[in-house]
Amino acid sequence: MHTSSLVSLALLATSAVAAPARQHPLMHEKSPYRKDYKDPYDHKIDAVGDGLQPLPIGNGDDRGTDMMGPRNPARERQNPDLVRPPTTDHGTMKNMRWSFADSHIRIEENGWTRQTTVRELPTSRDLAGVNMRLDEGVIRELHWHKEAEWAYVLEGSVRITALDPDGGSFIDDLEKGDLWYFPSGHPHSLQGLAPHGTEFLLVFDSGSFSEDSTFILSDWLAHTPKSVLSENFRLPPEVFNALPEKEKYIFQGSIPGPIKEETPKNFKKSKLNFTHKMLAQEPVNATGGRVRITDSTNFPISKTVAAGHLDIDPGAMREMHWHPNADEWSFFIRGRARVTIFAAEGNARTFDYMAGDVGIVPRNMGHFIENLSDDEPLEVLEIFRADKFQDFSLFQWMGETPQRLVRDHLFQQDPELGEKFWKAVEGAKSDVIKSPQSGEEEFSDEL
Ligand SMILES: *[C@@H]1O[C@H](CO)[C@@H](O)[C@H](O)[C@H]1NC(C)=O
Ligand SMILES: *[C@@H]1O[C@H](CO)[C@@H](O)[C@H](O)[C@H]1NC(C)=O
Ligand SMILES: *[C@@H]1O[C@H](CO)[C@@H](O)[C@H](O)[C@H]1NC(C)=O
């Protein structure tokens, strides 16, 4: 609407009061979302942390204007780089972000579960994720499924049981930062332990997995003639009148004692180890954080899922890289992040992530992860449907390529800068998370 029509509307109003001078949002002094702001280097902006309201206003050029229609300011703050993409973004790309906050929750007795699968996030093709909470003593009942299950304990403690194909049995208690892995079809159960039960992330090695369609003990028995149960267990059929009429799924159980006391008498210990202490692993120290990698090399049973756990320090960045062997399925545990995904043919799009978000980076697409937050470190799991964790570092690639070749590609126009670049990458050592630069030059705030 033009100002002139606003004026005539105001004149029509019966009790015409002088309208307060409207501060033009594009001119708000502190905000980088205004027409006279220019950042030629597209630095990250933490809209959530700094309480900024992103607007689709070009960075130092004439593009864009404010918003008039219906909007969701909270979501826009969470996605500043979708509202005003860096000037380097280009082309279209499938959606690569989903928040568990947008997933339907299945509420059960003293527990709940929600999932992010190919149905919620169509790019989640290789893996599906489930976030589950079980209070103390609450059981995710004995079940199995065709997908392998990998899990990371987010909080609390949990007891798992499993059986291997040789009849070997496995019981273990896990805490925050521990993993388990159940190969396809292996029967298992989970139970929250004292004092507050547990919450964990489950990852299945197929994007189309559904937590609602697993093979559940009580469901099977409820759908088997009692005469057959009688034959199978060599008991009179009346015994089975006591069985639940349908699946229990998640339910309050009795509080378990120590493993020693719970173990059946003729317990045959499995030769397999279904669990691993990922956070307890000695990290690889990068200049800007710590990395722990767990795959079939150090967790042999985990043949279809490999993972990296990253702690990204203040201002630090997971360096530019790509994964040659699988799509990345990341889960953000803490903090906020900016990620630009480079998809070849000039296409690149930037997504922002925060705790509880799932991110996808298709195999081979170049990307980085920047810490956006001013008050929280960034903690991320990078998960792959693969037996080994593999990545290629851009930095290392440049440093291990003949100098002449690198310079001819990037700095033919300015040999002096080429020399500077070469010095920076020469003899590159792997540094997966880079610490912030000291004395980073300030960028111009003026046109
Ligand atoms: C499985 O391996 C882990 C090492 O990650 C070890 O701490 C644990 O005791 C093992 N569990 C069993 C039951 O063998
Ligand atoms: C990494 O840093 C921690 C803390 O400074 C140290 O205890 C650990 O030994 C280092 N690990 C390696 C592999 O150098
Ligand atoms: C994250 O990065 C910002 C710089 O963008 C830095 O100021 C902040 O301290 C970092 N947050 C933490 C505590 O990791």
Please, could you describe this protein's structure?
- The structure is a single chain.
- With 447 residues, the chain is of the alpha+beta class.
- Among the domains are: 28-65 and 72-87, no CATH class; 103-277, Jelly Rolls; 394-431, no CATH class.
- The chain is 14% helix and 31% strand.
- The chain contains 9 helices and 25 strands.
- The protein has helices at 3-12, 73-78, 80-83, 217-222, 226-233, 259-262, 394-399, 403-410, 415-425, and strands spanning 97-99, 105-108, 111-116, 128-134, 138-144, 149-163, 169-175, 178-182, 188-192, 198-204, 215-216, 250-252, 275-277, 284-286, 289-294, 306-312, 317-322, 328-334, 336-342, 348-354, 357-361, 367-371, 378-384, 392-393, 433-434.
- Strands 2, 3, 4, 5, 6, 7, 8, 9, 10, 11, 12 and 13 form a 12-stranded antiparallel β-sheet that branches. It has a 7-stranded antiparallel β-sheet with strand order 1-21-18-23-16-15-14, with no helix packed on it. Strands 17, 19, 20, 22, 24 and 25 form a 6-stranded antiparallel β-sheet that branches.
- The longest helix has 11 residues, at 415-425.
- One 2-acetamido-2-deoxy-beta-D-glucopyranose (NAG) is lined by residues 172, 273, 275-277.
